[in-house]
Amino acid sequence: MNLSTGEVTKVIDTEFKTGHIQASRFTPGEIVFCNETGGDAHQRMWFCTADGTVFKPLYKETPLDWVTHETFATKDFVYFNILGFQPRLRKQASGIVRINLRTDDVELIGQVELEKDRQAIDGQLVGRGFWHCNASRDNKWAAGDTFGGNVWLVNVQTGERHWLASDTKMKPDHAHPS
Question: Which InterPro entries match (predicted)?
Fold first, then answer.
């Protein structure tokens, strides 16, 4: 959509329902969106350019990945979460992850301290980890909320974690660091 004129133009066609559509605030013409299933998609995250010349999976998922809540964090990075709430998903790393848009390099930023998260929610939702995430403007910190209603801050360079808030459960809304 041209915000000055209100003109709307089609960029691409997909064979799936799209959601979480985001235009980069850093690089005009870059768009991230998801295959919105309401659950686990075989391939959730997608990237395209506003002129439609690039259209590709952003992060190529494996059967052990349950990817959710992607967001542009910097000019070069999209942050997202890989969930670990099922036993099959805990066979590899989960937590806040980032992918470099220029190189496709993927880095794990961090996961909640699961024991603290379990205690905070009386043993419910064990091992779910982060739900939403985002980065500070200087990209030094990542923030994430959990299904149990906790909010964490993670140092992107060191992985040091700080538990900021608890019990911010949906009533009807939830913490959504952005």
Answer: WD40/YVTN_repeat-like_dom_sf
